Amino acid sequence: MLRTVILIAVLVAVKGDECVPRSFGEDSVVCVCNSTYCDTISEPKIQQNQVLWYTSTQDGKRMQSSVINFATINETENDLVLTVDSSQKYQTIQGFGGAMTDAAALNIRSLSNETQQILLQSYFGSTGIGYTFARIPIAGTDFSTRPYTYDDVPGDITLSQFKLVEEDDYKIEYLHNIKNIMPNPDRLKIFTTAWTAPAWMKYSSSITWGEEPFGSLRREYYQLYADYIKKFFDAYKKRGIDIWAMTPGNEPLDGFIPVFPFNAMAWTPEASAIWATEFLAPTLSNAGYDLVYMAMDDQRFEIPWYTDIMFKNPRAKELFSGTAVHWYSDKLFSPLRLSQLHDKYPDKFILMSEACTGSSIFDFRKVILGSWKRGQDYALDIIENLSHWVVGWIDWNLALNEKGAPNWAKNFVDSPIIVMPESDEFYKQPMFYAISHFSKFVPRNSYRILSTGLEDCGNIKAVAFLTPEQQIVVVAVNKASSPVGVTMKDKNTNSTINLHLPANSFNTLLYLAQQ
């Protein structure tokens, strides 16, 4: 009881929208939110020739803002010069978001109603960080309390036993809450995929990868599985949830690999293309669903070859609007693969559809409260992906508990928000703020624009955007353990500003583009 009284006193004493920090060791800081208080981001109006600068640092600053002025003459006092050119535009950014898994919904539900709403506000609300994407699974994943699908009655070829589960009630409730708190609910894009068909529809008769001939869908059930997916769409539509897009299946290679002990179904690119074009899309289209289809939904090392094979099927090349990519092999494979994919199919987008830390076999601590490194990994990956034609970046579980659970396969991982139900609190981790430096300030339909000069600088990584409101947004990460001087120059105005990026920091700079 004493701890609660002290915490409430501290929260009341904090001004405005500042982080209420809690330390978990040297430079390991989370921001604490509860039913009465949660930090937000101030948004002062930018004047001409001013730069609004937001900074988060390893030593505890979180989205602290300051206003600085462009130099009246062309002054350069640093060796490093970042030149921004808004006349050179690249891909249109579609946005940022996270996944409403069973685990996320159950963890959010473990909090009081008031704290639940504040958590959802933190991501999607007017005082939140600008999420406009939500990914939802079709039936269970490893981030469920048990392995299941919507029809686990063997041989039910009429799908008479198909039904949603209790976790769907929670997810649907939260999706409605999200739409209610968003400044523009029409901007929410929900996309989906299934981890597996019911086990009895697969050669392996297993919800996981199975054994020879692997966990692929039986050919005689291609239409039945499309009907199963349609039933999911019908059930969600009946509950008021419209879905924007889907992929044929999550991580299609997992069903071939026994190292993955969780829900998986094997899809070769040829089979994925055939099922999607000849069964899935016609079934959903005939039922009135006008969907965006994304290919693959798997790791970077599979591009461009997986998509290439799919698109040898001319109907698949016409059907699919883009490719969904996961982040788990990003450190092992060059981002040039993304550019290669874009160059081959410039009319099709690339979406980073799943990311999380703590997933490696070498991550012995699945949740590390306040880990700056994990936040830095997020920020650098976002910069890398968006710099190579990716249009959006979607996190995995919106919320987990301090064990990275629940996960029936014990495949625990970390999350930007960790819930603490015993104290009715949740923690915003550095990963949350890493995403915030992009998602809060780069709305849908922004353009990535040219930014040059730091390509060979190992410690500073940056990317720039032009928003629909004609603001320039520059996000820069300093990986160095000491401050680094950088001069930012706007090529169109020749205006400059000299910056000293703090040690181990995320930085977002905003200013008005020349009209």
Would you write up a description of this structure?
This protein has helices at residues 2-13, 102-109, 113-124, 166-181, 222-238, 269-286, 305-311, 314-319, 336-344, 372-386, 430-439, and strands at residues 21-23, 29-33, 50-57, 64-69, 80-93, 95-99, 133-138, 189-194, 245-246, 292-299, 320-326, 349-354, 390-397, 400-401, 417-420, 425-428, 446-452, 460-466, 471-478, 484-490, 495-501, 505-512. With 515 residues, it is an alpha/beta fold. The strands form three sheets. A nine-stranded mixed beta sheet has the order 4-3-22-19-18-17-5-20-21, covered by helices on one side. An eight-stranded parallel β-barrel has the order 6-7-8-9-10-11-12-13, surrounded by six helices. It has a five-stranded mixed beta sheet with strand order 1-2-16-15-14. α2 crosses α4, α5 (222-238) packs across α6 and α10 (372-386) runs parallel beside α11 (430-439). The longest helix is centred in the middle third of the chain and has 18 residues, at 269-286. The protein is globular. Mean pLDDT is 94; it is low at 1-16.
The best one-word shape is globular
Q: Tell me about the biggest sheet?
A: 9 strands, mixed
Number of helices: 11
Quote the beta fraction. 25-35%
The gyration radius over C-alpha positions equals 23 Å
Q: What low-confidence regions span 5 or more consecutive residues with pLDDT below 50?
A: 1-16
What share of residues is helical? 25-40%
Mean pLDDT: 94
> Strand order across the biggest sheet?
4-3-22-19-18-17-5-20-21
Structural class: alpha/beta
Number of strands: 22
Subunit organisation of the chains? single chain
N/C terminus separation: 57 Å
